[in-house]
Write a structure and sequence with these properties.
Length: 275
């Protein structure tokens, strides 16, 4: 199956002259339709920079970023705006990602703002349907963010990202600010939505336990270089790189039942993506 996203020998540098800093070094990586790819590494390893090249937020020094076969580094600003509905982001902090002065319906519905073919009533209907899909009642639509917990706000952020029916959702440390029990709820929600909607996720995190639980494949990024990729179960069972082994050694041991459920989910998606 062809890749939905492909980073092809990607290099990104910041600054000039003596202040020049290479953040990504010749990175090659892909994300396939319908899968969750975990991108793991320490803070400063280049994870978020990689995602920003996909969003057009940082310039590329060399290499290509392909989305559905198109090199998006060569797109005009107008063409890139048209692509924005197919790529959405869920950010880390559920408390800062929603405007406190706007109702939930306004915040979630803004992702359809460029769709001039929809009436206000149609947008609201879609917002209510999506809120229901993420486990929130319709009366949440007319409330403000202050009325909700962190986990509920992250569900709202997920609803906002999914409303335009994207092909890819970038989850940038999307559960790291949540309590462990709420993390599990949000991860299970994301997995359920993926099964129902056929989404692909680029899941950026420093938490190997999250990758083990959620992601079908994983890529390990160290100092701007991909040092290891593969099926999550295989990489965790037999890591090839010293850095991966260090990450594994420092990660908490997962609950056996959770590990079994994660293996079953990864196997199911692997079978579907190969079909």
């Amino acid at each position: 199956m062809s890749a939905l996203v492909e980073f092809d020998r990607l290099t990104v540098e910041y600054g000039r002259g003596r202040k020049l800093k290479r953040v990504l070094h010749d990175v090659s990586l892909d994300v396939r339709p319908g899968e969750a790819l975990g991108l793991i590494g320490e803070s400063g390893s280049g994870k978020t920079t990689l995602s920003k090249t996909l969003l057009g937020q940082v310039p590329v020094t060399s290499g290509r970023v392909l989305f559905d076969g198109t090199d998006i580094t060569r797109l005009s600003a107008r063409d890139r705006r048209g692509l924005s509905r197919r790529i959405q982001v869920v950010f880390q902090n559920p408390y800062s990602s929603l405007n406190p002065q706007r109702t939930i319906a306004q915040s979630v519905g803004e992702t359809l703002a460029t769709d001039t073919g929809l009436t206000r009533q149609e947008v609201r209907r879609r917002v209510l349907e999506m809120l229901e899909q993420v486990g929130l009642s319709p009366d949440a639509a007319d409330k403000f963010p202050a009325a909700f917990s962190g986990g509920q706000r992250q569900r709202i952020a997920i609803a906002r990202a999914l409303l335009p029916m994207p092909d890819l959702v970038i989850c940038d440390e999307a559960v790291s600010a949540l309590d462990l029990s709420v993390q599990a709820q949000v991860l299970n929600l994301l997995a359920d939505l993926q099964d129902r909607l056929g989404l692909a996720y680029l899941f950026i995190t420093h938490d190997l336990a999250v990758v083990r639980h959620f992601c079908h494949r994983m890529a390990v990024l160290k100092s701007g270089r991909i040092v290891e990729t593969g099926q999550t179960g295989a990489v965790c069972a037999q890591p090839r790189h010293d850095y991966t082994r260090t990450l594994l050694a420092s990660a908490p041991v997962a609950d056996p039942d959770a590990q079994a459920a994660a293996r079953a989910r990864r196997h199911s998606v692997a079978q579907r993506t190969m079909a």
